[in-house]
Amino acid sequence: MSGPKHIRTPLARVLGRGAAKSGTEQFWHQRLTAVANVPLTIAAVIILIALLGRNQAAVAQILGSPAVAIIMLLFIGSMVIHMRIGMQVIIEDYVHGESAKLTLLMANTFFTIGVGLACVYGVLKLSFGL
Amino acid sequence: MTETRSLEGRAPTERPLSPHLQIYRPMLTMMMSILHRITGFGLYFGTLLLAWWLNAAASPGAYARFQWFAGSWIGRLILFGYTWALIHHMLGGIRHLIWDTGRGFGPSEREWLAAANLIGSIAITIILWIFVLLTMGSSQ
Question: What whole-number distance in Å separates Cα of residue B5 and Cα of residue B8?
């Protein structure tokens, strides 16, 4: 039997965005941030251990120093993107009611941006002494 | 509009569903998959602690309050759990990245990777916390 090999239009095929209209962007970003998170997590843990038992002034000075602050900011940024995608997948897997799902997806975006910005603010305050 | 109704306009009939998780015998790889999701879920809310710590570091009073919490019984328990979740999710992530390259799917390889994930995360967490308790103990 000869029939069309694809039922998708040529435009849909060349765009490759699929049913969700966003292609594999999310899949890729989750891997990209996962790869970034490995060295950044190790670095953050080393920084944390180095700060153990120090007083507030020393902690503030070390956290606010350029190299440490930049590592922490990269860690926060990569982590927040990674956890927003991760929580979105969990919500889409388990929440089937349309309005509850949309509400939680919105809350997910608000929470991740909020907590990310709070972390960034904390680091920048130490760096610039605002 | 297509509706999943029968021709007579009745409500959709109950259809059999495919079997769910509970019919399977628990396996290590399956448990590690579930743990990866649970640890990710926990770490999500754990970032609130990170935000607190980073913002508390600016003032002595706020930092003292954070230290009081971190040194308390419940604080240490939460931070210990956070450490394990972080290390476990990181090692699990590396396992998933290995799988993404198409490697490590063999029957013995996947079991070995899952076991290494669990043993590695517990071992690293304990080593880190021995370090933490020794440092905190000597500074007090």
Answer: 8
